[in-house]
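fold-stage: in
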Amino acid sequence: MIAESVRAIWCRELQRDDISVDDNFFALGGQSVIMATIQRHFIEELGVEVPMDQMFLNPTVASISAYIESLGAVTQQ
């Protein structure tokens, strides 16, 4: 499931284990450097490139997961 993979990446990079699918990345302390690292993990782990603007427009696990799923070409590695 994409949402669980995205959540795991966020938990790891934000150094938290209590992130829900509706938590806002920025409210959790996220900032652009962490976002760039997450963007790289999306490429490495999910095989999908997520543009930075989409990460700003979709600041929750649920919304960015829906965006990733809409791309239709996700391959979990």
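fold-stage: in (second)
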Amino acid sequence: MTAIQARATHVPSPARNLTFVRQLRSEWIKLTTVRGTWWSVGIVAVITVAIAFAVTSAMSGPVDNIMMAVLMPVQLTMLIAGILGVISVTGEYSTGMVRSTFTADPVRGSVLAAKAVVMAAFMFVVSLVVFTVAAIGISPIAAAKDIAVDWADPAKTILPILAASAVMALFALLGVGIGFLVRSGAGAIAVTVGIMFVLPIILQLLGMWLHDLPWVLSMVDYLPTSAAPDVILPSDGGALNGPASWGVLAAWPAVALLGSWAVLRARDV
């Protein structure tokens, strides 16, 4: 009796180890192929350029630093950065893609780190381009008003733009951390808005009512929205100095990301 050999039904494929670089590439593809990402970038660009042109056109007389016209919208665009960080996470939870992500890379801390790195780098580069374009765009208007954009002085031009770009990246990281903690898109956006805009108002009101507790009002200085102006365009009247303001800005996303890492390790998808 002749032995019949069964044909192989499995074709071996070359093994590829999942590296952190491949994880970064995966997160980059997910971020840049979503229309919401580019809508957010477009909104940031339009708001920044429009306000910069409007403020510059309304200026008259000597101006200490024209970059204030370019960087003034950061108080608004940082919210968009935070929301973009949120939806980069919660979008995966709403579609169920997060299960595939964690199946491909069971080390959840690696997924969190890759998403944070990609989001921070993307937001920094986008902000840097937008702020630089706005600064170059307002130069002719400023020159017509005898207001010079002194590119030869990095402390008044390049450094504020770099600082503002870093601030945008940190707010995006805060959104990533909140997104992993809350998981719900609406809930995470509500928390982000609350931290940036509602919490300062609440603390200021409590500080006005509770005169015996002055530390309540001083807590406002340690909110990220209060520290941001101190690092972008430092002034002598700021409540915190430069290093302290940077520490506050870095602490908020750091706490959110550490908390989300702990939650990811202990909670099912």
